[in-house]
Amino acid sequence: MDAIVINGLTKTYGGLTVVDSLNLAVRKGEIFGLLGPNGAGKTTTLMMLSTLLKPSAGSAAVNGFDVVREPGKVRSSIGMVFQDPSSDEVLSGYENLKLHALMYDVPSDRIDRKIDDVLDLVELKDRKNDVVKKYSGGMRRRLELARGLLHEPEVLFLDEPTLGLDPQTREHIWEYIEDLARKLGMTVIVTTHYMEEADKLCDRVAIIDEGKIVALDAPEALKKSLGGDRVLISGRSLKLDDLAKLPYVTKVEPLDGGRARLTIADAGRNLQELLRVTGELDLVEVHPSDLNDVFLHFTGRQIREEAGGVMEQLRVMTQARQNDRH
To answer: pTM of the entire structure?
Structure first.
């Protein structure tokens, strides 16, 4: 059985369709990424799957439970790590986790052992009695991961889990997420705008734009779908029509300043032949296709840093609802 099944999931608000008839199945044990520019609908999708928003149409089931008819069962079987910090800064790490355990009805005789277990997983056991305001940004993210795992969820939702962290801390968080998913066999749904994060972590990625899924596959397959590597060349007498006829050139994009961007199948093998055909060039830059290229190809834009996560989205929608009533 799939961990998540979505059929025709739609969310309209204020006359705007934010999520437009999504169909998706996420396998159990999969790390699945949702990528999209601001306003694409990925955070709204996450909110519907975690029962924070009701769909306008369609259906979604998480762990076999319908998000509308069985919200309590959905919430008891998922963990959620918000983009926005939600731990209480004046409480210790232990106190934050104990409060969460009580909210999720973790048996009292298991609470302390469970807290120690999840703090061990994220390497915070020696800091469990420190108040959270003394934690670094990376330690806070790890504490939030621990809290999301405390009640042993079958599905973990991560909204921009490494936003704002330095590269080294991001790498550590990625390692935690991947190790936890593989070790515990849980399904992980990640929203992110870091392409290298999606590439490293995710078994499959869905690119969402204007409320629709425009691409869905494994990261490597998505990159291969572009037809090869990108090569930027510049020269005084480029004959682009001739280059386009070469069997290993799958795309030619004229640029200003006598430059062109080519897509070449297996550039490592065919670049030498290309240089022989073009003759003397002023510039040659080889860029292996990555998820940034995939994103640009399918959406026509560069991905931008998110303006806000689930909590900010809730605030905006609540304000919009109040405005509609007046």
So the answer is: 0.80
